[in-house]
Amino acid sequence: MTKHLRTAVLIFGLAMPLLPGPIASAQQKKSAPPAPIPAQILAAKKVFIANGGGDDSHSEEAPYSGGPDRAYNEFYASMKSWGRYELVAAPGDADLVLEIRLTIFRLQRVRVLSDDNPMFDSQLRMVIRDAKTHQTLWGLTEHVQEAVLQNNRDKNFEQALAAVIAELQSIAAPAVAEPAKN
Questions:
Q1: Are 169 and 32 in contact (CB under 8 A)?
Q2: Sign of torsion, CA 60 62 65 67?
Q3: d(CA 176, CA 116)
Q4: Within 13 A of 47's CA, how many CA atoms are on the CB side?
Q5: Crossing angle for the helix pair 150-172 and 70-82, nearest 10 degrees?
Q6: Which residues have a Cβ under 8 Å from the Cβ of 159 and sit 6 or more positions away?
Q7: pLDDT, tens digit, for every residue of 133-162?
Q8: What is the pLDDT of residues 69-119, one digit of tens each?
Q9: What does the alpha-carbon distance between residue 129 and residue 96 come to, in Å, rounded to a whole number?
Q10: 35 vs 121, residue with greater confidence
């Protein structure tokens, strides 16, 4: 192979990714349109809020204040103040069941800090179920960011719960298009 031929092959090999064919076709692919929100979520008037449980299995070292029912209590209060749904006392009286659950995983790690500072991966999970069919319609999971100090862990818990509520609000009451101005 001559020097000029090697140079031409090298230049062609380097220039190949820059050719418009593969890149242009990749750029022309559009993301899929958003799937519809289940009609039951949009039409619901009454909800039952279920306590899916708070993981307090590490009670002597619980990462958050407020006990195992904190997620349920705060979620219930937020839903009540939002006012989008009428909260009912029994699932049979509801259109939807909103179940909130806190799961805490204690992480195994190399001893960098002492055992006095365990690390956790906490998740807030909210599931929306049709009260009549018991079918899951939607699920949301938000991780609670880890922190060393108790105040910061509690603040991160609040932020994660606020994110779950904001997502639910965006799903259950999507933005309405503004009417055309004359």
A1: no
A2: negative
A3: 50
A4: 26
A5: 40
A6: 144, 145
A7: 999 999 999 999 988 888 999 999 999 999
A8: 999 999 999 999 999 999 999 999 999 999 999 988 776 655 555 555 666
A9: 6
A10: 35
